Amino acid sequence: MNTTYDVAVCGGGIAGISAALAARRMGKKVVLFEKEYVLGGLGTAGLIAIYLPLCDGMGHQISFGIAEELLRLSITYGAEADYPDNWLDGIGTKTENDKRYLVRYNPQVFAILAEKLLLKEGVDILYGSYVVDVKTENQKIKTLYVENKSGRTAYDVTAVVDATGDCDIAKFAGAPTDTFKQGNILAAWYYYSDKNGYNIRQLGAADVPDEEKTGNEEKPIIERRFSGLDGKELSEMVCLTHQTILKDWLKKREENKKAALATIPTIPQIRMTRKLVGEYTLSHTEEHTYFDDSIGMVSNWKKRGPIYEVPFRTLYSREIKNLAVAGRCTSVNETLWDAMRVIPCCAVTGQAAGTAAAMCTDFTALNVRKLQKELVNSGVVLHEKDIID
After folding, report:
1. DSSP for residue 134
2. What is the pLDDT of residue 258?
3. Eight-class DSSP state of 59
4. Nearest-angstrom CA–CA distance, 382 and 379
């Protein structure tokens, strides 16, 4: 087995898929470590199968590149709901009164299509594989220690992307991190079928950040909150999720004997756990702010209007120079975290992290102009001024 790679991507969610694609398309030898046996993370195994907006809600597409590529991939064989015909088919207008650029897709189909795409591009995928420790030298990760069915294997790497969702690699390496203070509420999304077809049931979701609470929030399933960073706690959470699903489905079955439980999540439906404290921490107050080192733009799925340029400095810390993070590991403040954790943002930051990892082994010394040029050549739009007159 080859144990030396140019770029190692840790975590096969949307951020990891995007990072692996970007690095491989730069001609690098890339391995993707994923602890489950399916790609997509919460967006597939977790059944949170909503590709949230690529637009600002005011008629402007703002996330491009792999973020758009994966949205289109997710509905190759049709969308389940929220098909944005005004965007994809050019029917209708694109204003604050029209559909946003989002879809609900089938998670199982998307997982298989993402795997097929990565294999076609030449990415090595190792399923059932956890990175359990790292070796660092001179503020760089030299070796990843990975456990799977084969036992423990050491992989020598040139650059690493932490797309674990929990910022595990940064934590192992000694980079500065921070945890989600509010904690996660219980979620229990599942699929069932009945005479009306195949349906998703959305029980529980992400909590509203404290700064955005109005007092009218939906009551959580239970009062307990979960950090997502403790093995015993996560097991207890999953058991509570299963019990909630069973209770809800049995109630549906009383109303409709044809209601069959179809699919349950196979991972905890945790939204936010741990993130990097990077060279810059982006705040929710910095909407419509120009950043000279922007690597792309993201929107706020909860409301129309905000546009955030994402500085490259939010993806790394000078403490570990060859480690970039992506997705919900990105360095943002706690209020913005809830907007930054979703699929388009994961794809935008994943593409940037993977591209950077393919270009150098010291992100503090990377020529950002060259990185931006590569991203633009791959279809990314960097600044708000480039899309809005």
Report:
1. E
2. 86
3. S
4. 10
Return the structure tokens found at 106: 């089938």
| Cα separation, 259 vs 192, whole angstroms | 7
Three-state DSSP class for residue 276:
strand
Within 10 Å of residue 189's Cβ, how many Cβ atoms?
Answer: 23
Task: Tell me how far CA of residue 21 lies from CA of 26, 77, 113, 357, in angstroms.
Answer: 9, 21, 13, 12
Burial class (CB within 10 angstroms; exposed 0-12, middle 13-18, buried 19+) of 138: exposed
Helix/strand/coil for 126: strand
Rounded Cα distance between 23 and 28, Å, is 6
Q: How far apart are CA 102 and CA 49, in angstroms?
A: 11
pLDDT tens digit sequence for 128-168:
999 999 999 999 999 999 999 999 999 999 999 999 999 99
CA 77 to chain centre: 22
Closest CA to 56 of 292, 359, 342, 299: 299
Over residues 362-377, the mean pLDDT reads 98
**Tokens 């690699």 sit at which residue?**
169
Reading the block at residue 192, the tokens are 């069932």
Cα separation, 207 vs 219, in Å, equals 10
Predicted model pTM: 0.97
Cβ contacts of 125-129, under 8 Å, gap ≥ 24: 125/12, 125/31, 125/32, 125/34, 125/39, 126/31, 126/32, 126/33, 126/34, 127/34, 127/36, 127/37, 127/38, 128/34, 128/35, 128/36, 128/37, 129/33, 129/34, 129/35
- For 79, the token pair is 């969308």
Q: 290 and 307 in contact (C-beta within 8 Å)? A: no
In contact, 34 and 12? CB cutoff 8 Å: yes
DSSP-derived secondary structure letter, 305: S
Residue 1: per-residue pLDDT: 59
- Within 13 Å, how many C-alpha atoms sit on residue 281's CB side? 12
* Tokens coding 121: 């591009």
Q: Which of 322, 312, 357 is nearest to 27 (CA)?
A: 357
